[in-house]
Amino acid sequence: MTENSGGGGVDWDAEAASFDEEPDHGLRDPEVRRAWAGRLPERASDVLDLGCGTGSLSLLAAEQGHHVTGVDLSPAMVERARAKLAGRDAVFLVGDAAQPPVGEQRFDVVLVRHVLWALPDPGRVLRRWWGLVRPGGRLVLVEGVWGAFGISAEVVRGLAETLGGRVLVERLSGDSALWGKDVDDERYAVVVRGD
What we know:
This protein has about 200 residues and is α/β, with parallel strands linked by helices. Helix content is about 30%, strand content about 25%. Strands 1, 2, 3, 4, 5, 6, 7 and 8 form an eight-stranded mixed β-sheet that branches. The two termini are about 25 Å apart.
């Protein structure tokens, strides 16, 4: 979601106060929440939410019994995520999603939504993220192309295929419930499975 290494020069700290106003950011609409919640793992998992923003996906995951570690470069976003998930099984760290400050810790799911497009060396970053996935786990990348910004599914698929896992691509543009509105740009998920 948020990353200052690219992202079109956006000041994410300044955006934090209004970030949740977008239906697919704040996940306030019950239909949008259900749509995203249905995409989370069914069994309790250790989830790393990179570029977690204000923690909306992290909150859904914690509500479903997952242990969540969120990372975002923006201190203001992390502050909002911590407040949103106070008392839940979640930890939030200020740090670069490209080099998450999690040491040698491994996760069942590494979830990254709208971050890869903003990073200068996506191939290197994907290798780093894949190294954070436990055997049998998965790397989930939700990305898109929005006008002059973004990264295409074909590019991400090509990069992901070098990781050695099984790669699945799912087109998400037609699922208005995820976005809280109809969209006509390219939105998709690339899932790399270690099984």
